[in-house]
């Protein structure tokens, strides 16, 4: 793999894209003080290097609620009976394929996994729990925490202003 060197312009581009990836190339170039061709070339290079994994639209749950219902958001801790690599990998592979699982983290110490899941309502969550946890003989304990209010949601990586 080709070595990749990141500089302060790249960091500014990444930061600006984390803030709002819908900006045009011209807007992004003006924001980080580079020419549009330089901006485009650098963003393409960042994508090719895999530093920009993907770009998505973040939907507003509050504005969608009148149309679709509020739904349930839960943080779920899962502890396994066996923690060997094969057992953990098998559980992880199964849960990441489920559309209700929005995020999956293998953690330590404490539970083996922390999941962020979404469900339409409590019966939908029950179906998810049956599907992912109850039918898995290796799941020892599940603890779900249901979100009452989302105070902050900012899916971004903290970036330095300059390369150390």
Automatic annotation (TrEMBL):
The keyword Transmembrane helix does not apply. Transmembrane segments: none annotated. The keyword Transcription regulation applies. Residues 6-73 form the HTH asnC-type domain. Keywords: DNA-binding, Transcription, Transcription regulation. SMART domains: HTH_ASNC. InterPro entries: ArsR-like_HTH (IPR011991), AsnC-type_HTH_dom (IPR000485), Dimeric_a/b-barrel (IPR011008), Tscrpt_reg_AsnC-like (IPR019888), Tscrpt_reg_AsnC/Lrp_C (IPR019887), WH-like_DNA-bd_sf (IPR036388), WH_DNA-bd_sf (IPR036390). This is Lrp/AsnC family transcriptional regulator. It comes from Variovorax dokdonensis.
């Amino acid at each position: 793999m080709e070595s990749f060197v990141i500089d302060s312009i790249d960091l500014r581009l990444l930061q600006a894209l984390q803030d709002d990836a819908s900006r045009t190339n011209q807007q992004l170039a003006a924001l980080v003080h580079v020419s549009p061709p330089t901006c485009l070339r650098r963003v393409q290079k960042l994508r090719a290097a895999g530093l920009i994994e993907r770009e998505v639209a973040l939907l507003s749950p509050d504005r969608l609620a009148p149309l679709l219902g509020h739904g349930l958001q839960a943080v779920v801790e899962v502890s396994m009976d066996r923690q060997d690599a094969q057992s953990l990998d098998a559980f992880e592979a199964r849960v990441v394929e489920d559309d209700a699982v929005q995020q999956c983290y293998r953690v330590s110490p404490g539970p083996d996994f922390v999941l962020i899941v979404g469900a339409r309502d409590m019966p939908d969550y029950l179906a998810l729990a049956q599907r992912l946890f109850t039918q898995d003989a290796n799941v020892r304990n599940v603890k779900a925490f249901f979100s009452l209010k989302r105070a902050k949601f900012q899916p971004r990586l903290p970036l330095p202003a300059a390369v150390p």
